[in-house]
Each structure stands twice: as C-alpha cells, then as structure tokens.
Write a structure and sequence with these properties.
Two copies of one chain form a homodimer.
Chain A (H helix, E strand, L loop, with lengths): L2 H8 L3 H8 L7 H13 L6 H8 L4 E6 L5 H16 L3 E6 L4 H13 L4 E5 L6 H10 L5 E4 L8 E6 L1 H14 L5 E6 L3 H15 L7 E4 L10 H9 L5 E4 L2 H13 L9 E5 L4 H4 L5 E4 L2 H16 L7 E4 L2 E3 L11
Parallel strand pairs in A: 1-2, 1-3, 3-4, 4-5, 5-11, 6-7, 6-8, 8-9, 9-10
Antiparallel strand pairs in A: 10-12
Helix pairs in contact in A: 1-2, 1-3, 5-13, 6-7, 8-9
Chain B binds a DNA duplex (16 and 16 nucleotides) through helix 2 and helix 4.
Amino acid sequence: MTIYDIAKLAGVSASTVSRVVNGKPGVKPKTVNKVRKLLDQYEFQLNVNAQSLSTKVTQMVGLLIADVRNAHYTELAYAVETHLLRSGYCTIIVNSGEETDGMKSSIQMLRQRKVDGVIMIGSIFQNDVVSQAITHFLSDVPVVIANGYLDKENVYGVLADEYQGVQKCVELLYERRYRHVAFIGKKNTVSNRQKAEGYKNAVISRGEPLREIELHSSTLMEVDYQPLKELLRLYPETDAIIFSNDYLACEATGFFGARQIAVPEQMGLVGINNDRYCNISCPQITTLDNKMAEMGLMVATTLVDVLNGKPKAKRVMILSEIIERQSIRKEVRI
Amino acid sequence: MTIYDIAKLAGVSASTVSRVVNGKPGVKPKTVNKVRKLLDQYEFQLNVNAQSLSTKVTQMVGLLIADVRNAHYTELAYAVETHLLRSGYCTIIVNSGEETDGMKSSIQMLRQRKVDGVIMIGSIFQNDVVSQAITHFLSDVPVVIANGYLDKENVYGVLADEYQGVQKCVELLYERRYRHVAFIGKKNTVSNRQKAEGYKNAVISRGEPLREIELHSSTLMEVDYQPLKELLRLYPETDAIIFSNDYLACEATGFFGARQIAVPEQMGLVGINNDRYCNISCPQITTLDNKMAEMGLMVATTLVDVLNGKPKAKRVMILSEIIERQSIRKEVRI
DNA sequence: TTGTACGCGTTATCAA
DNA sequence: TTGATAACGCGTACAA
C-alpha cells in the first residue's frame, strides 16, 4: 500500500493523499474524509524510509554505548530509548566495546544510516579518536554525551558531579566516625578519574594520607580480590572504603563477610551509581546516586530540543545525592 | 557526496560507480581503480536509506524487549545486537513494556520502519495480541522469539528448557539432603509458569507435598518480603527454596541472614538465569544457567540465516545447566 | 482546492 | 564493459 494506491482508490492524486496523511491544510474536508476512510480501511502505513529520502530527516537516533550489560549504562539506555520513542524517534543501539576502533566504526555506521542525532553513553567516549570521528562523520548532526563532554560545535554534555559527590562521601564517612578512608577504582575513564580526584582532594584537605588502590579489572572476583588484599596489607588501619561502582562494593561485602570483618561496624563500604546491586547485597550498600534515570531523560530531551532548533546549554550537570543504607554506621542522635 | 558526484569526477556514469561500490563484476579493473581512488579520497558513504528504497532491504532488525533493565534480558540484548552488527544488520531497540498495547504499537512502528526482521526477547511476547499484530503488521518478515514461540508461518522460537531444568534443581536439592523444597515465583509469563510446572512435577513425582508461593511483584523487598514470611508460616519445615530468578534468590540471602537462618546449612537457595547477581550475594547463589549468551547468538543467527534463505528449524531448545555455588550444601564424598 | 512534475540517492534492466 | 532510463515511495514547488 502506497499513497499512489490510495490515490487511485480515492480518485485523487498522490499529492492530495500525502497532504491528508501529514495533516496539511488546503484540502477540502470532504476529500479529507474520503481519503481518511481509505487510509483506515487499508491500514495504510507510510514508508518512513522513502519519506526520509525526500525530507532528509530520518527520525532515527543512534545510541552508542560501550556495553549495555553494564548496569549503570543499562538504566541510561532504557531512559533514553523510552523518551526518544515518545518524542517520535526510534533508537539504533550499538555496543561499540571499549576500544576506540569499535567506537569509530560504529560512528561511521551511524553516519551511513543517516541518523538525525547521536547519544553516547559514558565518559569513555570522551577521547580523541571519537572527537575526530565526530568532526569527520557526524559534523552535521547534534551529539549528546551522557557523563562526558567534547568541546565541539555540535556536541552537548550532561554530566554527573562525581567529583563533589565523592568528596561528600568522604565527609560523610568521617562524620560517621570512620578515620581511615580508602578508595578503590579503575582509572580508565574521565569519570573514574574524577571520582579518584574527588577522593584525593577530600582526604588531602583533611591532612589525611591517601589510601588508594587502582583497579585494572572490572570485578574483584576475577582477580581473586587482590585489590582488597593489597589494600589491607598496605594500609591495615583502613576502616572504610569507597568503590568506584556498586558492583565492586557488593563484591566486597562477601569478602569481608568471609573474613569475619563486620560491616558496617569495623568497615564502612560505599558504592557509586545506585544500581540495583545495592539492595541485594547484605548488608545493603550506601551509595552515591548519580541519578541515571534523570540523566537519561535530560540527555534525550537535550537531543530532541536541539533537533527542534531550541537553543540548549552545551554542558549541564546533574547533582548527585548520597543514599544511606546499611553498609555504613548510622547517624548518632544525642 | 552521492554516486553521481563521484561519477562526474571520474568521468563515468553513476551505474558504474554503483557497481564499484557494491563490488559487482563487469567493470574494467582500470575503471575500478580510478573510481576507488575517488571514493576513498572523498570518503564516500553510501546512503543506506536510498539503497533500501531501491532494494527493498533495509538491513535493519527490530529488537523488541519488555524492559532492557531486566538483567536477564540485557544479556540477551547484548548478544543479539553484537552478532547482528557483525552480520551487517543494525538494531532498532524498543522497550515495549509489559502491556500488550505497548507491544502492539511497537510492532506497528517497526513495520513502518520496514525492518527486515524482528527479534522478541522473552516469553511475555507469547500472547494473542502479539500474535495478531504479527499477522497484521509483520506477516512478510521473519520473527524470532527468544524463550517463546507462536505457531505461525514466519515465527521461529529458541527456547530454554526451564521445565526440565527446574526438575533437575529439585532432584539436586534432594541429593544434597534437603527434604522440604519450596518454590517462589511469578506466573505472569509462559516461561515462569513452566518453571512452576517443572517444580510441581518433580515434587509430585516424589510424592512430596507442594510448597509454592505465587509472587505478584518483581522484587521481594517492595512487598516487605511477605512471600518469604508466608512461606515460612504455611510450611515452616521448608529447608530449600527455588526462585524463578536470581534476583529474588539474592534478596532472600539478606532476609535469612538477618534472621540468623544459615544458608546453606539450614536453608538451600537456588536461582534461575545465572545473572551477574549470583556472584555478588553472600553466599553466592546456585543457579540454573539457561545460557543467555548462547541463546542470544542462536536467536540472531537464526534470523540472519532465515533472511539469507536458509531453512531453519522452527523451534529449538537450548539445554540448561546447574551452576553450583555456595547457597546449597556440597556433595558428600564418601 | 487539486494535480503535474521533479527531486531525494540508489539499484536494476536493457541496450549499446 | 559501460551508460541511459526507469523504478523505489514520498514531499513539494508550481501550475491549473
């Protein structure tokens, strides 16, 4: 069923059908009705593809993500897709992997598909290869990065205040009478480095020594909990640990449970993200909620607004909030 | 840059450029070289959209999923997307929600986008509304359902043997000297009902009484662990529980931990799916691994093969396997 | 208010 | 081995 078929059935021209389909003015009501009836009767479906060819607008958005299985990103991807769909866009999702090669080829693919815009999830996309790929392949469409930013004409960033957020976590731990706060995390992305910086700054400004272990794996289990062991060897006085994500913190509950080190009495644990993981470990994990659902919404609306010609701030930040659960001591009421 | 632009620069016709771009035979090697050079130089990108209009093939696949945040589905979605991409297809992802209305409108959208095929993730799509929507909107493209099936000309199903799998779980628990095995799960999907049936069959064939609680929520926490409390009230003798997914089993570890009921000594816990959740609870969860990565691969290859005209079995089943972890007693060696 | 004719970028058919 | 030409399904200026 094309508009031509409908046109023939209605005894009008294809242009008229096109006008009716798109609700454009200048068609006699009677004709509108006649055409509408046929449209319904035959359940006419516009060929969006052909439409795109003519209008140069595909109503498709590319969603670039290193790995959707990362719980942190899953939440964002969900929020982005559902909002985009409500706004009339469909989402082409691509798991690019963590290598820049994959990112580049994914970007190239999205360009070929003529997407109207691109959303990238994670600060891992904040790198030179991606930056060049954008100027190269995506210079004429808006790009929004969740939790990252690149200084380019057509790139927008929605950031989480992880730097300050982690500082607040450190402060909270001291408030709760922890005295030797450590940090364990990867340093592979801007985001992770910012968390480490937040920790560093907070601890130094208190005149405390740094107790930091850099992680080179995604889980503790796969390296037999070495980072935790090393932390306790280097800094046996440690009584609280901030992890760069909730999964790690959850893993740690098992580690300390097996060693009879009581959480939160002897050891305070704090995660980051407020993933689903936080609630199922025992004890439940206190975490820095960086509002993934909100961020997803913000990212999607930013892109849609830009596509509709509305001016938008190039960088905005979403404020994080600590969610207190069982893995740290409670506030003392006097 | 269109093939016309390149053609002009090369002093040949657009058809020739098209042939070179698509690697078709019948072009003089010298011409091929000349055109290739221009193609590279101007970094020509084929407009896939226009190509689709002409060839009637979009190289796009729709991925329908109730909610990608469900860890179980995330794994599948990842496997599907990455394999599809390798096969030259891009993936339009749609979170349809659990209501049939959303499913129907999502299917309609995919039809408008002229996707070459559709993959649905989860037995929740095994219902009449979807069945009708398929005959209505997707009758001319192949549909593959992960963990579900509909008896239609163009629908293929890749199933998990949850029925037998759960039976094996029950048997294993008896082997490990648990005597009063219970089951807790939702019954909202075919898949979940099959798990319950597997439990039922195994227990009945042993002449044991059923200890089953139907769940009406997605997590235990949100209903204040009522299902667990009720189970212990109705069947206080219970010494092992099979849950319809790992998340629930993980939640249960916290519940029993708080009540000083030792897992696995006093209570054995078994989950289903082998999600990431299994490894981070303490104790770690024994689970029925229904091989989501394998299933994702199988689903994607099935679709691709059908699209390439290869004949495929309409229903296949992937065999599950129990992964033993700390939440049940170990085998006794005599 | 409606229809004609053309363009969007590509592929396919046929003739040269 | 190559090139003209039509076709894919739709939008739109322009003419009627």
